[in-house]
Amino acid sequence: AYKRFSELLPKEERNNACSARVPKSQILTLPELRANPFQHRICHVFSTSDDGDDSMSFEDFLDMLSVFSDSATSDIKSHYAFRIFDFDDDGTLDRKNLEQLVNCLTGQGEESRLSTAEMEQLIQNILEESDIDKDGTINLSEFQHVVSRSPDFASSFKIVL
């Protein structure tokens, strides 16, 4: 992990990789993220940058890799998946978040975009299955409850991460 992280830095910064921050643009060159529809959200969620530039420290990079790992628990994976899908960082998945999530998964092209009616039906179905307290949003515990009923979640989450 240290070698991969330091290789993302300019040559002159590699000797101090433990104290350096890798810019988001370099993180996005990783093969695991290059074609990932959630690449920007992944950088945002794992970055501890005070500048809001989504750069990563070595510790941030290790956190990200640990969630990618096969040995990460379903609870850890679902916690980070929830944070990645919470596009407005408000602690809930509302209709707007769910629409963004579906658009990321299906692609933004005209040929793959769902119609307004299809999108509304899909979001309604998701909320009916997941929104236990019927408040129109999905919170972390509701999300984790749904995930716990899906044995394939951990393996499918590898596609997201």
Q: Which descriptors apply to this entry?
A:
single chain; 161 residues; mainly alpha; Recoverin, domain 1; 2 domains; two-stranded antiparallel ribbon; 2% strand; metal-binding; integrin
Q: What can you see in these coordinates?
A:
InterPro entries: CIBP (IPR051433), EF-hand-dom_pair (IPR011992), EF_Hand_1_Ca_BS (IPR018247), EF_hand_dom (IPR002048). Keywords: Calcium, Integrin, Magnesium, Metal-binding, Repeat. GO terms for molecular function: calcium ion binding; magnesium ion binding. It is a single chain. It is built from ten helices and two strands. The chain is mainly α and 161 residues long. The protein has two domains: 1-68, Orthogonal Bundle (Recoverin, domain 1), CATH 1.10.238.10; 74-157, Orthogonal Bundle (Recoverin, domain 1). The chain has a two-stranded antiparallel ribbon. Helix 4 packs across helix 6. The longest helix has 15 residues, at 116-130. It is elongated and about 55 Å long.
CA-to-CA gap between the ends? 16 Å
Indicate the structural class: mainly alpha
CATH class of the largest domain: Mainly Alpha
Q: Per the principal axes of the C-alpha atoms, what is the gross shape?
A: elongated
Strand content: under 5%
Q: Element order, helices and strands?
A: HHHHHHEHHEHH
Rg over C-alpha atoms, rounded to the nearest angstrom:
17 Å
* Contiguous runs where pLDDT drops below 50 for at least 5 residues: none
GO molecular function, one term: magnesium ion binding
Domain EF-hand: 73-108, 118-153
InterPro entries: CIBP (IPR051433), EF-hand-dom_pair (IPR011992), EF_Hand_1_Ca_BS (IPR018247), EF_hand_dom (IPR002048)
Pfam family, one: EF-hand_7
